[in-house]
Design a protein that fits this description.
By secondary structure, this protein is mainly β. Helices cover 0% and strands 51% of the residues. The strands form five sheets. It has a four-stranded antiparallel β-sheet with strand order 1-2-3-4, with no helix packed on it. Strands 5-6-7-8 form a four-stranded antiparallel β-sheet, with no helix packed on it. A four-stranded antiparallel β-sheet has the order 9-10-11-12, with no helix packed on it.
């Protein structure tokens, strides 16, 4: 479900097997993580400074932290709808000591500042554009804007760092710029955003041009 880079290795979450596969740059398996610890791993992200691996364990309604050797370091959250609690968390993104978590069945994004453990909530359940129903992918651009794939209504939603809606992209369809169940979202170093447009069997690529007003 999830893929991230960790130094010279590639980490892949396999939700059915309850494992994280560690591959080298040639795609060869060199290790596995999470055996007997993970139930259904989905989202995965990596902090290169602390060398910690963050994994959302969807069935356990928690985020689990590992070192690169696979040792469990900490567990964040339990089932619930209060800040710091989760209901089927899925995709993750780590940037600048903040962990962005798609709290899918609570219809929100939770942002945990790992410096002081403060929590920001972005989005809420609703029927209007900018509201969330089934958020999945989450990523952040160089200006701190937060990008969320809303899989139920087929939108890419963009919020500023304060959590205010800036822009919606997409809507249901198969034309350029439209989506059918978008899931993962990722940024590269050039601020290009890649969206996994799952039921259209493609990846859509957009370029962030700057400005967050």
């Amino acid at each position: 479900v999830g893929v991230t880079l960790a130094e010279d290795t590639i980490l892949v979450s396999d939700s059915e097997q309850g494992l994280i596969f560690v591959l080298n740059q040639q795609g060869q398996l060199i290790d596995t993580l999470g055996e007997a610890v993970l139930n259904r791993p989905t989202g995965i992200s990596y902090d290169p400074v602390s060398e910690r691996i963050f994994v959302s364990d969807t069935d356990d309604d928690s985020i689990k932290l590992f070192d690169r050797a696979g040792k469990l370091l900490d567990v964040i959250g339990t089932k619930g709808d209060q800040p710091g609690e989760f209901n089927r968390p899925t995709f993750l993104h780590y940037r600048d000591q903040k962990l962005y978590i798609s709290d899918s069945l609570n219809a929100r994004i939770q942002v945990i500042d790992l410096r002081d453990n403060s929590i920001q909530i972005i989005g809420e359940r609703g029927l209007y554009i900018g509201n969330l129903s089934r958020p999945k992918g989450v990523a952040v651009d160089s200006a701190g804007n937060v990008y969320v794939t809303e899989t139920y209504y087929d939108y890419l939603l963009i919020y500023n760092p304060a959590g205010e809606l800036l822009l919606s992209i997409g809507g249901s369809g198969n034309l350029a710029g439209q989506f059918s169940q978008p899931t993962g979202v990722w940024f590269d170093a050039r601020d290009r955003v890649f969206i996994s447009d799952m039921l259209n069997s493609r990846v859509s690529i957009f370029q962030y041009l700057g400005g967050n007003e």
